[in-house]
Specification:
The complex is a heterodimer of chains A (about 800) and B (about 270).
Chain A lengths: L3 H29 L5 H28 L1 H25 L12 H30 L4 H22 L5 H20 L3 H21 L11 H6 L4 E9 L2 E8 L21 E6 L2 E7 L18 H5 L4 E5 L5 H8 L4 E6 L2 H8 L15 E5 L2 H7 L4 E6 L5 H5 L13 H8 L2 E12 L6 H15 L9 E5 L3 E7 L5 H14 L2 E4 L12 E2 L4 H10 L3 H7 L23 H7 L10 H31 L13 H30 L2 H22 L10 H28 L5 H19 L1 H13 L4 H26 L1 H34 L1
Chain B lengths: L15 H17 L14 H20 L1 H4 L6 H7 L22 E4 L2 E3 L2 H11 L6 E5 L5 H7 L4 E5 L3 H13 L5 E4 L13 E6 L8 H5 L1 E13 L2 E10 L5 E6 L13
Parallel strand pairs in B: 3-4, 3-6, 4-5, 6-7
Antiparallel strand pairs in B: 1-2, 7-8, 8-9
Classes of the chains: A alpha/beta (about 800), B alpha/beta (about 270).
């Protein structure tokens, strides 16, 4: 028999471990697979917690009799499962690239899902058992649970600096080991010793863990390392990503996106830097004292330098410095190079300082480590040229694997910000891959037209110039009208390099599609439709979603249209696999399995138990009829995650990286929702009245709608704040909303407590199941409809929950009055 | 000897429980052996494979008809089809994928590489417009299936593979199947194969950020170069580089699929 004070710290530890594990998984899966797993990870963590709820409903009372053993073994199981299940999941031969071809891939995906759910299941058992075992200390246990979870968010961020990402899951396992030691051992001395031993064991394991992740063999890094003589020379890790520098002595790295087929120049020696195993980003060799190499002059990216002689140049997403070299080679007087990842800048400056000819320490170059959009919104400077590098990895982009990357760099609002920082006659130049059938080039053009219109420009058709090669296209948007001399220069540039003019205001259809011949001049036709009156019809009827990306729907790389799915699937074997957006297909698969597994693992056990005791449908006549319970808890479960997921994705813009957004937003929601549910634990609310439900639901609806209206302005004005202040501001914004969001679920439970306690497990299960589905569904809806729509839907769901619960509480009082009389 | 199946993929008819069992078993297998070696089929021709190959030809034919407008021709030349019906594709896929060797889909062959979808192989061969006496360079041998198809159509095939084990396996396989007019080199294909240049046609299946200029140089005037663009398992389009007789280079970007940009409508 142990007192509650003995389990508080272990509960906090397990809780921290589980949350850190969740965040680490989103990062690790971005490395070994692609980013679209992030939202699946949140869903599978919820599934683990939901399944644990159902499990404890069945086995909890018996396990509480041997609480210490049960807690200890679950903590140990968590410790073992965290690294082992990840290692196992890594080895499941799931290949998202094959998902269009092989129905088996869906089963592999489910195998990954089930394996990774296990650690969360065990961690949830520890917490759930403690809550069951010490009902009188519910509040304190809950507080330690959530405090631990919030700490876990920051533990994960710290761990992501470990140079070996696979070691992070071992460190997470330590929390489980120490929790087990603390709970199991009676004497303080033994606990201390055991904890010490656990830490030592963990450190040894972290060091001896076989280094390296099982990166998908189809990712760029894995492919590059197959080349004889290629070796990893440097690894840097941070929450922003894993950087792997690869040198290849026998077969040189030759990264030159879309180099002209008639280029007379050789690609200079390079080092390849892979970001999350994708890429590569080249660092180019510059001989000491030699002029900067200008091989990039033979790519479409060089276009603006042939239309004008820009002196002040801003390069957004400077990476390894290739675009900076181009600016220097073309005579720029001053280049501002903005790069988010300080480790990448440091790699170029130190390890490859001599190799790169000190490009980032060049007297004409100023390096700024910052978020590109944040820098632009903050700066008062004006530039002759703002250049946005093509950041996505080619192959992954071609397959649509970036479909779910939320990106705030290429939205209508972002382009508007760049355009407003151009000097008179200045140019914004953006290069993208040519995806065929045409998608991202057209979306960029549509986004540019919308941005110009938003700025009140009436001659936007005269400010755009667009060229394409066989693999890249570059769009130039000028702060002024493109004149006849520039039109001539554009023609010469394309003629000498084998590129095509895709659009300028003085061109005819016959001039399009001359050198890289497509079945039809798709690009020119798209441009004409987008600047003309037929834009809306064109966007509606085009096979892909090429409508402008906005801050509300910042999925520039998603082109999926539901109407087009049956055709793409039908044509898949007829060479049409390139029509599918794989990232989106994986998301849909995740949604389907969330529904199925949620039902099987959470609801089925409860149904089985109900068969033996109080069924959901049977029992005495009470106000909370089954339909009311289902309706209420489905609404609340869906709505909570809708808001949480939408906020995570919206705050990516403000906090500059998904991993920061996940950590800060998740921690804030956990903490303040817990406070909210504590607030309704007062004895006076033992059988809540209608207005008790109404107040939080209305507050949530109002606050969430207000957030949608006010957040964009806040993000813009606070863009220049230091990261720590932005984090504080994020917490402050989320706090009141999350506080009220903690109440409806707790109030629903209290209502049941007083009149139908046997149905409480059902309430938990239904809510858990709805959450599992909601985590994925929220992203599906955000991609299709935007964040405002997701949050508005959540507001409506809360109001619906209020209406459903209102009837319940009113009826309850009538029934109670009837019984009294 | 595994029973070959028709491209309709009878696998999807397996009862769910059996498939789940399969998954569990393969999962255990995958866990026990971190990097399972991939063994290749050495079996002799069985009658089932011939039937599967005929079904594959039907698939290619149907697809070619379907995509005629984009590709610019509505059928694959009879000589190419004849060769596609002869080359034993199942000898070029890993053992464990024998059953799906003739399904119209790309397959993984290890080392992060794939064997292309039969339809794409046929189409690339077609777009190369080869003649009997031609000398062809291939960059990116992979399983050597494409090289074997070409070897049946032209005089000489030179194929280069940078991944040593793949090159060795390809060499052995081609020799065993009796292809005497193919030479395999385990080397970087960026600079082509100057000793045998110029070439009447070049096929580049190795991923690259750009078209290596040396390869354009090693193309004979009048020759064609075909390059699939896109990710593994997802060919997006085919690049056909035509060096005209006057030396000028022209590029065609061929979608291997029927693409009607606009849906429905009132036109």
């Amino acid at each position: 028999m142990i007192g509650v004070s003995r389990v508080l710290v272990p509960v906090a530890l397990v809780s921290a471990g589980a949350l850190a594990y969740e965040i680490l998984l989103t990062r690790l899966f971005s490395i070994i697979q692609w980013h679209h797993f992030a939202y699946m990870v949140i869903s599978l963590a919820l599934l683990g917690f939901g399944a644990s709820g159902s499990f404890l409903t069945l086995a909890g009372p018996r396990l509480c009799l041997r609480f210490r053993a049960a807690f200890t073994s679950n903590a140990l199981l968590f410790a073992a499962a965290a690294p082992l299940c990840f290692a196992a999941a890594e080895r499941v031969p799931f290949n998202s690239l094959e998902i269009a071809w092989d129905p088996f891939q869906f089963l592999w995906l489910s195998a990954v899902y089930l394996l990774l759910m296990l650690p969360f299941f065990f961690a949830a058992n520890c917490i759930g058992l403690s809550l069951m075992r010490y009902p009188d200390a519910l509040a304190r246990t809950y507080a330690f649970d959530l405090g631990g979870a919030a700490c876990g968010c920051f533990l994960a961020l710290a761990l992501l600096y470990l140079p070996e990402p696979s070691a992070t899951v071992v460190v997470v396992a330590l929390t489980g080991l120490i929790a087990a030691a603390l709970a199991a051992l009676a004497s303080a001395r033994a606990r201390l010793l055991a904890s010490g031993a656990a830490i030592a064991a963990g450190i040894v394991a972290a060091i001896t863990v076989p280094p390296g992740l099982e990166i998908s063999e189809f990712k760029a890094l894995a492919q590059a390392l197959r080349v004889p003589g290629a070796e990893v020379t440097d690894v840097r890790s941070s929450p922003l990503g894993l950087l792997t520098a690869v040198e290849s002595r026998r077969v040189p790295v030759r990264e030159a996106q879309g180099l002209s087929i008639v280029a007379p120049v050789a690609v200079p020696e390079q080092v390849a830097v892979f970001h999350d195993a994708d890429g590569p980003i080249p660092i180019v060799r510059v001989e000491p004292g030699a002029a900067p190499p200008d091989y990039l002059d033979w790519t479409t990216t060089a276009l603006p330098y042939h239309l004008a002689r820009p002196r002040e140049v801003l390069v957004l997403g400077a990476g390894g410095g290739a675009d900076v070299l181009l600016a220097l080679a073309r005579g720029a007087e001053h280049v501002v190079a903005v790069e988010l990842n300080a480790q990448l800048v440091d790699l170029v400056r130190t390890t490859y300082g001599d190799f790169s000819g000190g490009v980032y320490d060049h007297p004409r170059v100023e390096v700024v480590v910052a978020d590109a959009r944040g820098y632009v919104e903050d700066t008062a400077r004006r530039f002759d040229l703002i250049q946005i590098a093509n950041l996505d990895a080619g192959g992954a982009s071609a397959a649509g694997l970036h479909a779910l990357d939320e990106g705030y760099l290429l939205t209508v609002e972002a382009l508007g910000a760049y355009l407003s920082r151009l000097a008179p006659g200045g140019m914004l130049a953006i290069t993208r891959w040519v995806k065929l059938p045409p998608r991202d080039g057209i979306k960029l053009f549509a986004t540019a037209v919308a941005a110009l219109e938003a700025l009140g420009v009436h001659d936007s058709e005269q400010r755009l110039a667009w060229v394409r090669g066989w693999s890249t296209s570059t769009l130039v948007i000028k702060n002024g009208v493109i004149d006849a001399r520039e039109v001539r220069a554009l023609g010469d540039f394309c003629a000498s390099r084998g590129f095509d003019v895709a659009y300028h205001h003085d061109m005819r259809r016959e001039q399009a599609n001359r050198r890289n011949i497509l079945a039809s001049p798709y690009f020119f036709d798209a441009a004409m439709a987008l600047i003309g009156p037929g834009r809306e019809t064109y966007l509606a009827r085009y096979k892909f979603d090429v409508a402008p990306a906005t801050d509300d729907r910042p999925y520039f790389s998603n082109f999926f249209k539901w109407q087009h799915l049956p055709e793409a699937l039908r044509l898949r074997a007829h060479g049409g696999v390139g029509l599918l957006e794989l990232g989106y297909v994986v998301l849909i698969a995740a949604l389907v399995q969330a529904v199925v597994l949620g039902a099987v693992l959470i609801l089925l056990p409860l149904a089985w138990r109900s068969g033996r005791s109080a069924a959901l449908g049977g029992g005495p006549a009470v106000s909370w009829r089954p339909w009311r319970i289902v309706g209420y808890f489905v609404c609340v479960g869906l709505a909570f995650l809708f808001i949480e997921i939408a906020f995570i994705q919206m705050f990516v813009r403000f906090l500059h990286h998904p991993v920061y957004a996940v950590a800060v937003v998740l921690a804030s929601f956990l903490l303040f929702a817990a406070l909210g549910s504590r607030a309704v634990a007062a004895p006076a609310l033992a059988s809540p009245r209608a207005h008790h439900l109404a107040i939080p639901c209305i507050a949530i609806a109002a606050l969430s709608i207000a957030s949608i209206e006010l957040l964009p302005a806040l993000f813009e004005h606070a863009a220049r704040f230091a990261q720590v202040w932005r984090v504080a501001l994020a917490v402050l914004v989320i706090a009141p909303l999350a506080f009220f969001m903690g109440m409806p679920f707790a109030l629903g439970l209290r209502a049941l407590e007083s009149e139908a306690p046997a149905r409480i497990p059902w309430a938990w299960g239904i809510n858990g199941c709805a959450s599992v589905v909601s985590a994925v569904l929220a992203t599906v809806l955000a991609v299709q409809l935007g964040f405002a729509a997701v949050v508005a839907t959540a507001a409506v769901l809360y109001l619906a929950a209020m209406a459903i619960g209102w009837g319940g509480t009113t009826r309850a009082r009538v029934l109670a009055a009837g019984t009294a009389s | 000897m595994a029973r070959p199946v028709t491209p309709a993929d009878s696998r999807s008819r397996l009862p769910l429980r059996a498939r789940a069992a399969c998954v569990c078993a393969s999962l255990a297998l995958a866990l026990s052996a971190a990097t399972p070696a991939i063994a290749f089929a050495e079996s002799a021709e069985a009658p089932g494979f011939a039937a599967a190959r005929r079904a594959m030809l039907d698939q290619i034919r149907a697809t070619a008809e379907f995509t005629g407008a984009e590709v610019g021709r509505s059928s694959i030349a009879p000589e190419v089809m004849e060769v596609m019906g002869r080359v034993p594709r199942h000898r070029f896929v890993p053992d464990k994928l024998l059953e799906v060797a003739y399904v119209n889909r790309p397959l993984p062959i290890g080392h992060g590489q794939t064997i292309s979808q039969p339809y794409i192989v046929a189409l690339m061969t077609e777009l190369l417009e080869v003649d009997r006496g031609d000398r062809i360079l291939e960059v990116g041998t992979g399983s050597a299936y494409q090289a074997a198809v070409l070897a049946e159509l032209v005089a000489e095939v030179y194929t280069m593979e940078i991944i040593e084990p793949l090159a060795q396996a390809a060499r052995a396989r081609l020799e065993e199947l009796g292809y005497a007019n193919v030479e395999v080199s385990a080397a970087d294909g960026y600079y082509g194969w100057p000793e045998h240049a110029p070439f009447d046609g070049i096929i580049v299946t190795a991923a690259a950020s750009h078209i290596p200029p040396p390869l354009v140089e090693q193309l004979k005037p009048g020759g064609r170069m075909v390059i699939p663009v896109g990710a593994r398992f997802a060919v997006q389009h085919l690049l056909v580089v035509h060096k005209r007789a006057d030396g000028e280079v022209q590029v065609r970007q061929v979608l291997p699929v029927r693409f009607v940009p606009l849906t429905g409508g009132h036109d």
